Amino acid sequence: MAGKISARDIEEVKSRINIADVISEYVALRPASVGSLKGLCPFHDEKSPSFNVRPVQGFYHCFGCGEGGDVYKFVQQMDSISFYEAVEKLASRVGFALTYEEGGASPDTGQRNRILEANAAASTFYRAQLMTDAAIPGRDFLKGRGFDKAAADHFEIGFAPKGWNGLYDHLSGLGFTLEELLAAALVTKSERGAYDKFRGRLIWPIKDSTGQVIGFGARKLFDDDNGPKYLNTSDTLVYHKSQVLYGIDLAKKDISKKQQVVVVEGYTDVMACHLAGITTAVATCGTAFGDDHIRTLNRMLSADRDVPAEVIFTFDPDAAGQKAAMRAFTDSHKFNAQTFVAIGPEGLDPCDLRSQKGDEAVQLMIEKKKPLFEFAILQKISKFDLATIEGRVGAARAAAPVVASIRDAAMRPAYIRELAGWVNLDGNEVASIVDSVAKKVRSDSVALLRRDNLASNDEQQAAREQDQPINLNDPIVRFERQVLEVLLQIPESLQVEQLVQLVRAGFSQPKHNAILVAIGSSASALHDANWLQTIKASCSEEQMGLLREIAAQPLPAADNEGLKKYGQGVIARALINVLARQKADLLAELRRVEPGSEQAAKVQQALMAVEQQRRALQ
Prior knowledge:
Layout: H1 7-16, H2 19-23, E1 30-31, E2 37-39, E3 51-54, E4 59-62, E5 68-69, H3 71-79, H4 83-94, H5 107-129, H6 136-144, H7 149-154, E6 158-160, H8 166-173, H9 178-183, E7 187-190, E8 193-196, E9 201-207, E10 213-220, E11 230-232, E12 245-246, H10 248-258, E13 260-264, H11 267-275, E14 281-284, H12 291-298, E15 310-314, H13 319-330, E16 338-342, H14 350-357, H15 359-367, E17 370-371, H16 372-381, H17 389-404, H18 411-423, H19 427-467, H20 475-489, H21 496-505, H22 510-521, H23 531-537, H24 541-551, H25 560-592, H26 598-617
Parallel strand pairs: 13-14, 13-15, 15-16
Antiparallel strand pairs: 1-2, 2-3, 3-4, 4-5, 6-9, 7-8, 9-10, 10-11, 12-14, 16-17
Helix pairs in contact: 1-4, 3-4, 4-5, 11-14, 13-16, 14-15, 16-17, 16-18, 17-18, 17-19, 18-19, 20-22, 20-25, 21-22, 21-25, 25-26
C-alpha cells in the first residue's frame, strides 16, 4: 500500500504558507477591506472583482460563483492535481521534508513531482551542453540574433546533443526510470529502445508562473534534421500547450504592476523584448493564442482601475500574421483590457528589430501601438481602391462587420465616424451600412439557433456513418486500404509533398479518412525511424485498433526492393486518381468561364500542369 502524508505535516505546511503569496502568482490581488485582498475570480469570467482572499484566516472566497477553500484546494483547482500532490508542491516551496505514515510517497501523487524534477535536471544538462564544441552552431544562432552569453544565461538556454541518448543516459544515471522520462516526454520509445526527444537543437526551458520547468521548446539547427523548425514538449501532467505562455515566470510581476501584456510570436521575440526593457512580453508555445491563455492573463489584469489595462499583440506583416491579428480581434472582447497591435518598421519582428536597430527601436515599436479595432478596420479597407466610389462603398461594407462587433456603446459611433473619414463617405451613410450589418448578424443568430436541431441530427448521422463497418468489397474503399497500408508500412515510397497531396484529396470512407488525417499531421516525420510511433500519438483510442490492423497487413512483395516498387506503384496510382479528379474539376470550371478570357487562360495552364504531373507518374 502506498504511503500517506502525516496529518501533522499537512497542517505544518499550511501554517508556513502565506495563501496570498500563492494566489497572487495566479491572480492580481490588491487591498480591499482590512485583512482582505481582492481580485478577479480565476474560476469564472467577471469584469468587477468579487474574489476575496483572507491571508490571516488562510482562505479565499468568491462572492460571484461561490468558490472557496484553503490554499490546498486552490492549488488543486488551478493546477488540476490531487490533494496530496498539492501538499507535496507547497512543501517543496517552503523546503519542508514530508514524512509518510506507511513507508513512502504514493507513486500516483509523486509522479508530477518526478516530472518536475526530471525537467529541472534536463534543463541543467542542456545548459551545460551549450558551452561544448558541438553547440557552436547554437551559439552562432544566438549571436546572429544579438544575444550574448549573459542573455543565454538569463533565459537559461541550452543545447541538446545530436546523439540519440545523451540526455537519457544522463538522467538514468541520476536515478530516473524510463517510465518517468516517458511521462515527462523527455524521451521517446520505439521498438529499438528509448531515445531523446530533442536532438541537435537549441533548447528553451518553459516555466510556469512559479518558475518550475514544465517543458521545453527546441529550435532546429542542422540541415539533416527532418523535423519541424520548432518542436515543443508534448502534453504531460504538468505541461498543457493550450495553457502555457513562455516568459510568464519573468513577466508576471510587471504584468500585474504595469497592467500591460505584450504578446509576441516566439521565444527570441520574448528575449528581445525583455532585454530591451519590455518586461511584460510572453508568447504561446507552438499553438494559437486561445481562451486558456486569455484566462491566464485576465487573472493578472484588473478591470476596475482608473487606467485601463493593455494587451498589445505583435504580428508579422505576412498573410499568416494578418490572419492571427484578425483572430485576436475576434477574441478581443474577452480581455479585461484594451487591445492593441504593434508592428515594427519594415515588418521586422522584435528580435530582428533589436538586432538591427537596437533596444530603443523595440521600445518605440510598442509605444506606437494602434488599437486593435483600428488595425482590423484598416486591414479591411486596404484591399479597396479608395479613389473610386465603388471602392469606397466596398471598403465601408467590408469594414462594417468589424465596427458592428464593437460592444462598447460609446466606442462604436466613434469608429463609425473614423471609418467614414477613412473611406471619405458621409457619416450617416456609413452608420446605415453598419446598422444593416448588425441587424443581419442578429437575424443570422436567430436562424442559427433554429438550425441547431437539424445540425444535431446531421451530427448523429455522421456518427452513424463512423460506426458503419468498412466494406472492403467496394473497389474504391479497398484501394484506399491499400494506400493506407503503404503509407504506414513503406513511408520511403513517397515524398512529403506527395503525402500532402493525398491528404488534401481525402478518402471516401470516414474511418479511412480519419487515419489519413492522423498520418498527414505526422508528415514532418515521414522518413524518421519512429514513423509509426509518431502516427500513434495523433490517433484516438478508437482509431488504434484499425491502425494496428492496417500496419500489420502483409504486403505482396518478396523482398525490400519489391516492397518499395509495390509501394511506389500504389502511390503513383493514388496520385493519378487525385489528378484525374482535379482535371475533371478544371474542365468543369473551363466550361463556366468566358472563352478567351484571362481566367480561361489560367485554367488551361492549370490543366497543362495537371497533365504533366499525370504523365510523369505513368
